[in-house]
Specification:
Shape: globular
CATH architecture of the largest domain: Sandwich
Strand content: 25-35%
Distance between the termini: 48 Å
CATH class of the largest domain: Mainly Beta
């Protein structure tokens, strides 16, 4: 009898720990300021209304349109203090992972620019990093800015230090990866799509105005690279995208048809997960099989999708009549690509919603370490 009581107590403690994570770890910050059109997708659905004071949760997808900006400040319960400013035409996901004894907060910057001013609270085991399609930026209590475009990232540090490593270095298991470098006051770091890392001197002057000028000239140069030979750029991404798109849509349909996930998402609208740890074990397996199926195609497709979204607005009317290597005109491809916008965006948001619900039932742990 005594062993049984101890066993029940142990299970109760585990359940309470999970419940505590469910209640406390979802809200990471709040909107401190916003201007223009800002969109947040949570649990697969647009969040409305959005205003100053609105909560920002784990795996929220945040998007700013032209002439728009949003500032997210961290809550003390996150273990961090400070804020993240997303500039116009920026798309990012904010996540929080429980990694052993440390809580790792990560902002996944898919495209656009942002400013970060953050530090870890004393006696708290939390960390923060920014991940772009090409770089992983380790933050060490600092203030910095980063812009991501055309498969490259440019980082400038106002105070402190930001460790800038190529994405390949975090993914490599054999230790053979391109060396990174640190952005420091007075020194820029650029991480290229090739995974090479370059440094340059940050010019003298007031930080914000100098950075604005540098960022504008850097992006102009990237756009010129694209427009110099747009068909060549398109030929690099169109085949990958077309292979991924059909697979993503099929995988997303299977994920939508998952009855367990459907129940989870309905429960999310009513305030959170129900059930017990025993049922969650079975339910997690039922959802994970479909998450595993979509993940590889989503990772490849997402990168191509964002790159094409960056490229297409810079095509000229003359470019539209040119032919791609597969024989179709640029205009025909753009028309087809535009038609996939809703379906593909829905697949991305569904995946994040499913991963979040899985983590709610798995002590905050996700099997997906990369994006």
């Amino acid at each position: 009898m005594r062993k049984r009581v101890i066993g029940i107590g142990f299970v109760s403690v585990l359940f309470l720990c999970t419940t505590a994570w469910v209640c406390s770890a979802q809200v990471i910050g709040r909107i401190e300021y916003l201007e223009g059109t800002v969109e947040i997708v949570r649990d697969g659905s647009p969040l409305r209304p959005i205003d100053i004071g609105s909560a920002v949760e784990h795996l929220d997808q945040i998007k700013t349109r032209a002439n728009s900006t949003v500032c997210v400040s961290f809550l003390p319960s996150s273990g961090l203090s400070g804020q993240v400013d997303l500039e116009e035409n920026t798309t990012a996901v904010l996540r929080s992972d429980s990694g052993g004894m440390e809580k790792v907060h990560e902002l996944q910057l898919f495209t656009g620019a942002l400013g970060v001013k953050v530090k870890r609270l004393a006696s708290n085991k939390s960390s923060f990093r920014v991940r772009t399609p090409t770089a992983v930026l380790g933050v060490r209590g600092t203030e910095f800015t980063v812009i991501s475009f055309n498969g490259a990232a440019l980082v400038a540090c106002k105070t402190g230090e930001v460790r800038c490593d190529p994405w390949s270095s975090s993914a490599a298991s054999n230790g053979q990866a391109a060396p990174g470098d640190s952005a420091l006051p007075g020194r820029l770091v650029e991480v290229l799509e090739s995974q090479s890392v370059k440094t340059a001197e940050f010019p003298q002057g007031e930080f914000s105005s100098v950075w604005k000028d540098l960022r504008t000239r850097w992006k102009t140069f990237q756009v010129e690279l694209i427009t110099a030979n747009p068909v060549s750029f398109l030929n690099s991404f169109v085949p990958v995208w077309e292979r991924s798109a059909s697979q993503i849509e099929a995988d997303a349909q299977r994920l939508r048809a998952n009855s367990v996930l459907e129940k989870w998402l309905l429960g999310a609208k009513k305030g959170g997960p129900k059930g017990n740890r025993s049922s969650w074990i079975t339910e997690r397996n039922a959802v994970m099989k479909d998450l595993l199926a979509i993940k590889p195609h989503l990772t490849v497709g997402m990168m191509s999708w964002y790159r094409l979204n960056e490229l297409i607005p810079h095509l000229s009317s003359a470019d539209m009549n040119k032919k791609l290597s597969n024989g179709q005109t640029v205009q025909a491809f753009v028309n087809r690509f535009t038609k996939t916008e809703t379906e593909v965006s829905s697949a991305f948001t569904l995946f994040y919603a499913a991963e979040k619900q899985y983590m709610l039932r798995n002590d905050g742990l996700s099997p997906f370490l990369e994006f």
